[in-house]
Amino acid sequence: MSAVVVFVGDGLSAGARWEERFPELEVRNLGVSGDTTDEVLGRLDQVVDVDPDAVVLQVGTNDVGWNRSDEYIVRNIETILCTVRKRLPGSRLLIQSVPPREKEFVHVIRSVNRHLRQFAPTVKARYLDLWPVLAAEDGTLSVEWSADRLHLIEAGYVVWLNELRPALVDLLERPPESMSVSRHPA
């Protein structure tokens, strides 16, 4: 599988070492630590300039930390997806759920993810729900995967990769389409 894949998002993506985790792909990691959806919107030219086969988006947790509303976060992510779809009509798109974090943010993150799951097909993007494998029973980021309920430790990245790899392989084997990716029952 020889394809150019751009990973764009915040510090979770920036720290993932996608180049090492997907050696069979030509990976461009455009994740930036601390980025919000506003910053990702501001750097979409970088994504477009690569002209990738696929764009993998993971963003939103920093917006949550800044107490931005679910509507604000969803609107920005929808704008990111619409812009990428318009400017890169032949690229495949994969939007990943906003990962869980501290208890006070559970409600807003679940709301954002519900909206993203519903919106993704409208721009022929796939949606990958990481919540089932990353969240503890109370909806926080599991201490198995994080030391601070925000940043992932290596075990958390491995769990993420185990979900992402089959979704990305499947995405790259097909033309852009509107099917959601879910490995877990709703």
UniProtKB/TrEMBL annotation:
Pfam families listed in its UniProt record: Lipase_GDSL_2
Domain of life of the native organism: Bacteria
An MF annotation (GO) of this entry: phosphatidylcholine lysophospholipase activity
Domain (SGNH hydrolase-type esterase) ranges: 15-157
Protein name: SGNH hydrolase-type esterase domain-containing protein
